[in-house]
Amino acid sequence: MPWLAVAMLAGIGLWFILPGPGEWLVAIGLCGLPAAWALIRLEGDGYALLRNAAVALALMVAAGIVLIWARSALIGAQPISGPRVAVVEAVVLKREEQPARDRVRLIVATRDPLGNVPIRARLNVPSDMDDPALVAGSQFRAKIRMIPPQRAAVPGGYDFAQAAWFDGLAASGSVLEKPVVTRRAGGASGWRNDLAAHVRQKVGRFGDTASAAIAATLITGDRGAIPQSDAQAMRDAGLAHMLSISGLHVGAIVAIAWLLVVRLGALWPWLALRVRLPLAAAGSGALAGIAYTLMTGAALPTVRACLAALLVVAALALGRTALSLRLIALAAMTVMLFWPEAVIGPSFQLSFAAVTAIVAFHNSRFVERLKERRGDGRAVRLAYAALLLFLTGVIVEAALSPLVLFHFQRTSLYGSLANVIAIPLMTAVTLPALIAGLAFDAIGLGAPLWWLAAKSLDLTLGIAHTISSLPGSVLQLPRISLTAVLFCVVGALWLALWSGRFRLWGLLPLALGVPALFLARPADLLIEQSGRNAALLADDGELYLLRNSTSFAADAMVEAMGKTPEPDVQFLEFTEWPGGRCNDVFCELQAKGRTLLVAQRPADVSYASLVAACARADIVISSRRLSADCRPTMLKADGSLLSRRGGLAVDLDGGTVRAVRPEGDRHGW
């Protein structure tokens, strides 16, 4: 069963890697070869298991390709063709408060001003232009600027265009004038915003602003009020999973409801003798999980976590093992059936990797022997439980680190220490206190519970800042290759899903993948998709930027180079490159034997001068489209190429170039 889920995941991943329909059809056809070979060659009852396994695995790979292909064709939103500035009418579908960024984010339904076709767009509204009436169901008129969803700034970076395709968003942008509300409406979004404000106000009486913001996040899913410095500290301490409503939170709510029904019901003999308490507890847990999911906005990661929790509850109600690799595989396949695109996102990968690591570790012989030796004394059993919790944290951190490094280029080295305290604190104190505080507010007795929640969150933040400030607490690497991560994932899955000595073969791909992570080296040159910025790494490790800015693209380039973008840290600019020659029109540098020419204002020079400058250069960068007679020896990264291929990563030694959009890529976004 677990390997069937892996096969489906592999099929979905292949669809994203392969460039277009022809290759997808070939991959589906190739899946039939092992199935046909097994049916023809593996005859007889002695080969039944192997034959069935080969056929099932091949079919699941093909099913993964078909599922994601169909999903993309059915819900993919064609992006608008270019920038738009117009006055439009729009209906608010969703409102997200982001006070920490001094803005509100809206998901709206409107029409493309150019083609007059209905589209969905994501708009940012500055706080000084906001209107509290802009909630789900309301309608407004405003002057807005819209652009197509942007591709990743550099190869391997976060690709908003891809996410927007599956979210049904055709554009993103911002309002240029204060919106005029033409139709008012209430709704769940307004109710959640009021609830978030209520929680922030109650917790803020006893804790700091960041604790109040995190409390609102845990109750409503609203993350917009968390200060950036505190959010970064949580990430660097390995506690970022607490800021995203996921399996930890949904599981805690379900467990609280389950335990309340079972424990309180057992105190009433009449009820305990007439009602199957585990079944009643399962129903209560399921209802609590669904209610919490709806209360927090029913974001897709939360819905997926709720679905997985419901499968666990169903297993408990049926008297089956609550957590097993088979159940995890069933939950993963259920999620992939409805949301196959989730496979490439960090939420799906980290959640299922963590749970798989936990279950595989606790089913191991080592843990069985540890439990046998823990004795009967309360103190000894408590010590063994603490040791087991710590070891579980270490295993989970080890399992997640390659994925975290791949997606974010940095991971916490002391996350297991922080989670030993923070996870029990969150599940046993913070969440119960917040839920009970809301309930007891109805009779005016919620203050002690809000105090408890505030102090527990203050402690959690204190742990985060302490751990993140320790020397060497964060491992920062340049962008690592997909191949290295796949070796690590294959090795980890082999160790987790097999048993006995056969599982030790998983150490082989790990022995190849783990060193590859730490041997990763950044590209020598990164060129942002607009051509207006670039990053160049010197031999001494110093990073130079074409423009020192605080844009998303600039931060993405800095992170891809293995550096940390910080507001108070300024990197050197191309004009400061040793031996470089720069003016308002050109900037010419020498790096690793290559001549790099940045044509900042090519229209201000004569045609002959531009052609001559290009002929001297190996690489030319320009945000404008350059003449066909501009022929550098290696790469002409002008507006024409960058608009087609997106951002570029260049290896100056080997002369290789990687693009955000590979040549021949025919995915919809």
Give a written overview of the molecule.
With 669 residues, the protein is an alpha+beta fold. Among the domains are: 2-75; 84-186, Beta Barrel (OB fold (Dihydrolipoamide Acetyltransferase, E2P)); 482-518, no CATH class; 525-659, no CATH class. The protein is 52% helix and 14% strand. The protein contains 22 helices and 19 strands. The strands form four sheets. It has a six-stranded mixed beta sheet with strand order 12-11-10-9-18-19, with helices on one face. Strands 1-2-3-5-4 form a five-stranded mixed β-barrel. A five-stranded mixed beta sheet has the order 13-14-15-16-17. Helix 2 runs antiparallel to helix 3 (48-75), helix 8 (247-266) runs antiparallel to helix 10 and helix 10 runs antiparallel to helix 11. The chain is globular, with a radius of gyration of 27 Å. The two termini are 33 Å apart. The mean pLDDT is 88.
**Beta-strand share of residues:** 5-15%
Helix percentage range: 40-55%
- Mean pLDDT metric: 88
Number of helices: 22
Total strand count, please? 19
The shape, in one word, is globular
Spans of at least 5 consecutive residues with low confidence: none
Structural class, judged by helices and strands?
alpha+beta
- End-to-end C-alpha gap: 33 Å
Q: How is the main sheet built? A: 6 strands, mixed
